DNA sequence: GTCTATACATAGATAGAC
DNA sequence: GTCTATCTATGTATAGAC
């Protein structure tokens, strides 16, 4: 694998582990056993590395939210949206952790992320609208209810990992925390969901939790 | 006013404006027209300044959430909890913006904030329980529903300001954004709220919005 | 309490050899 | 494509005079 790619991956790993601020260009180079000069041959500056990573995040998130959206939306697929996107939030957790600072220092990144956020909220609203058509969701009374719901889902989604990290500073985030996050998102919608749809969605979580517990007990597989 | 206090206030202002990371000790001293040495006479290090500010935040938040909690809880008081606490989140927005980084570099701060978070979620759950006793809120079906609701309220609360900041990178956060945030929090509870209780709560927001619009139109007052 | 001067570490970035 | 060497800027913090 070329050094360019190795730099990006090391940067992502280190930043996820220690936060974006703690990771500088010299640190990345050190860790890879290459020279700072080499790193700067591949990238104009530190921002550029982060931007490359952000592009992956952006693409992964959009793919996770758009994948398999054909109507009607099954509870399994609906739970899948949440689970896949939370997985993305986990894989790029450094970004959400240090977001404000990263965006402040890079206007282009700020604009792009604002765009992703706007798109995400619209798309979530679209999914909710589809659920209403499918009769899996009751329309909220207030006109702005759907949008408000989409915003709340987005906020909880984009901050769930941080919430877990802060709750237990010395603990690590595990897959069951992600599954718990999906439950948390479902709870926002619960009062509007068709009971059997909700039940089926929750079953997916129970199944995932079981799978995780088994893997944890038997790491061989 | 003594320099110690001026340092704390300047630090808070600068960090709120530019993010905690962008503000160093030399910058604070510069801005106040005092020497770095003077700053270090008053504080052991930068962490200590942040800790002093955090202590205010902690106290202000607790006071805002506990103030005037006698049962039964009126819709006006309930809306007041949200409005006052969001005001606190706004006054110390630097902390929420750079939280993960701040907590990573200061174990004591991390422990204290984790404590505040746990207390807050418990206290919110307590308020919801009181609302159920008052018959202003319907108990959610799931056993863990109340707690989940409290967590969602907390997550949206603690990240609302950041959400607004990121939504419009070049815009400023105004009081009407805070009021919108209260609406957002109410929406999480809406399906469980007694309709007349909810209506009265919303009226508080309309009134606050009107007050803000008038003040904006007539800054003299 | 406050100042000047300075030490020290680290991070971002570049020049030029190989 | 990669290296060594180095520059520059900045931030944290201290020593010692006033």
Automatic annotation (TrEMBL), chains A, B:
Pfam families: TetR (PF13972), TetR_N (PF00440). SUPFAM superfamilies: Homeodomain-like. This is TetR family transcriptional regulator. It comes from the Bacteria. Keywords: DNA-binding. InterPro entries: Homeodomain-like_sf, HTH-type_Tx_Regulator, HTH_TetR, TetR. Residues 24-43 bind DNA. PANTHER family: ACREF/ENVCD OPERON REPRESSOR-RELATED (PTHR43479), TRANSCRIPTIONAL REGULATORY PROTEIN (PTHR43479:SF12). Residues 1-61 form the HTH tetR-type domain. The lineage of its organism: Bacteria, Pseudomonadati, Pseudomonadota, Alphaproteobacteria, Hyphomicrobiales. One of its GO terms (molecular function) is DNA binding.
């Amino acid at each position: 694998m070329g050094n360019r790619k190795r730099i990006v991956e090391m940067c992502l790993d280190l930043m996820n582990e220690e936060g974006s601020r703690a990771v500088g260009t010299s640190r990345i180079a050190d860790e890879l056993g290459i020279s700072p000069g080499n790193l700067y041959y591949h990238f104009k500056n530190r921002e550029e590395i982060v931007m490359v990573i952000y592009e992956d995040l952006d693409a992964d998130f959009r793919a996770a939210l758009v994948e398999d959206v054909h109507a009607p939306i099954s509870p399994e697929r609906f739970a899948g949206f949440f689970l896949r996107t939370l997985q993305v939030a986990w894989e790029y957790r450094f970004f959400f952790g240090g977001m404000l600072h990263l965006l402040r220092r890079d206007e282009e990144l700020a604009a792009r992320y604002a765009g992703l956020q706007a798109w995400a909220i619209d798309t979530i609203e679209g999914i909710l609208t589809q659920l209403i058509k499918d009769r899996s969701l009751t329309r909220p009374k207030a006109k702005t209810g759907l949008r408000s719901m989409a915003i709340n889902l987005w906020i909880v989604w984009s901050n769930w990992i941080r919430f877990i990290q802060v709750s237990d500073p010395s603990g690590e985030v595990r897959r069951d925390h992600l599954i718990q996050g999906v439950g948390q998102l479902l709870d926002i919608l619960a009062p509007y969901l068709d009971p059997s749809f909700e039940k089926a969605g929750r079953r997916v979580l129970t199944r995932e939790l079981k799978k995780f517990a088994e893997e944890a007990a038997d790491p061989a597989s």
